[in-house]
């Protein structure tokens, strides 16, 4: 079928909308009409050649939500007309997948960034030429996407699909890190470094979990204002005075520090603000050399914890987050700004500049 997709090519500063061809679903796949999809900084990094390499040309996008249009012959859990949010891909058969921990799938890097199914095929072509796809199992910068049925999370039909896409990556990464990876308990404390979509989701989840002290740290003051509205008890302006400000707030240190930025100095500050047996969790690697103070860590039983996808099972956590959102306890939509798909370049640019926290692209009505 003919679809419209934002295609990332080597020569472009921004992916551009093109007409491409999409295959029919294979037995384990679903065809989803994308209603809306979020832009994540992982998409921007992939296009710009930062992080794991991706083949070109490629259709990016991995925060899609939409309506199932068709299902493969082996799909029994979903049916045409179902509403879904698409999460990350996984192999489905390795020990981590079988333990309902798909973010740590042994094939995670290949199925996320390889630009193809595990058998090496891509479902997208253009004039007979291959276009890489299946980015994070979806390539949702498109009017339609094919996805493995196991990565499509069912949603009730009264939930507004145009808001739900970010639950598949940015929101579940931030919220899952607090609720699943850290398992933060009522009365504990956390410092969140970076108040983009992932960091603000972590702040909101920490309030939901009953944290006593929630400190947001950033160099962007308007975002710190929003962090307070979403649950931060304190805010700290990043920079030279941040270390002392954090010590003033929590002289004995924090139970958790959560880093969403890639600046090495932020990692150092996050480490030194930990209390005894505190945990530093991070979702991106530092962009430059950073050597942890292992003496400080070991002396107090402190831990470093890498986190992928919030360590969450999307089929379990996303419905819970939707229920909390319905009840007004998890207003992640406060960080969303919507753009028509035709205005892709502006949404992309304003996300990259930091003016927009979470851009969501809405597809044309059908």
From TrEMBL:
SMART domains attached to this UniProt entry: PKS_ER
Gene3D superfamilies according to UniProt: Medium-chain alcohol dehydrogenases, catalytic domain, NAD(P)-binding Rossmann-like Domain
Keywords: Metal-binding, Oxidoreductase, Zinc
Cofactor section: Zn(2+)
Domain annotation Enoyl reductase (ER): ranges: 12-361
One Pfam family linked to the record: ADH_N
Gene Ontology terms for molecular function: oxidoreductase activity; zinc ion binding
Family: Belongs to the zinc-containing alcohol dehydrogenase family.
Protein name as annotated: Aryl-alcohol dehydrogenase
Organism encoding this protein: Streptomyces aurantiogriseus
């Amino acid at each position: 079928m003919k679809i419209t997709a934002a295609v990332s090519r080597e020569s472009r500063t921004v992916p551009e909308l093109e007409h491409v061809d999409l295959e029919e679903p294979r037995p384990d796949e679903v065809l989803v009409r994308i209603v809306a999809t979020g832009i994540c900084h992982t998409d921007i990094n992939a296009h710009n050649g930062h992080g794991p390499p991706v083949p070109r040309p490629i259709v990016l996008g991995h925060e899609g939500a939409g309506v199932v249009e068709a299902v493969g012959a082996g799909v029994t859990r979903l049916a045409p007309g179902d509403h879904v949010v698409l999460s990350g891909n996984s192999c489905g058969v390795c020990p981590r997948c079988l333990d309902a921990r798909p973010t740590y799938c042994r094939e995670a890097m290949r199925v996320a960034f390889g630009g193809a199914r595990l058998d090496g095929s891509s479902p997208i072509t253009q004039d007979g030429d291959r276009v890489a796809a299946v980015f994070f199992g979806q390539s949702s910068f498109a009017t339609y996407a094919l996805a493995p049925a196991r990565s499509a999370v069912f949603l009730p039909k009264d939930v507004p699909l145009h808001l739900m896409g970010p639950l598949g990556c940015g929101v579940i990464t931030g919220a899952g890190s607090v609720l699943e990876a850290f398992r933060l308990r009522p009365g504990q404390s956390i410092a969140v470094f970076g108040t983009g979509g992932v960091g603000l989701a972590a702040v909101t989840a920490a309030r939901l979990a009953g944290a006593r002290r929630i400190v947001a740290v950033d160099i962007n003051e308007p975002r710190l204002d929003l962090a307070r509205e979403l649950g931060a008890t304190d805010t700290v302006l990043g920079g030279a005075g941040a270390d002392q400000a954090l010590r003033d707030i929590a002289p004995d240190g924090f139970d958790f520090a959560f880093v969403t930025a890639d600046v090495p100095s932020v990692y150092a500050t996050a480490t030194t603000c930990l209390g005894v047996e505190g945990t530093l969790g991070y979702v991106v690697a530092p962009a430059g050399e950073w050597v942890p103070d292992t003496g400080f860590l070991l002396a107090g039983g402190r831990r470093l914890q890498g986190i992928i996808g919030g360590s969450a099972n999307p089929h379990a956590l996303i419905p819970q987050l939707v229920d909390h959102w319905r009840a007004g306890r998890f207003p992640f939509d406060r960080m969303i700004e919507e753009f028509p798909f035709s205005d892709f370049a502006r949404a992309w640019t304003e996300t990259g500049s930091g003016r927009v926290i979470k851009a969501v692209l809405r597809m044309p009505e059908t």
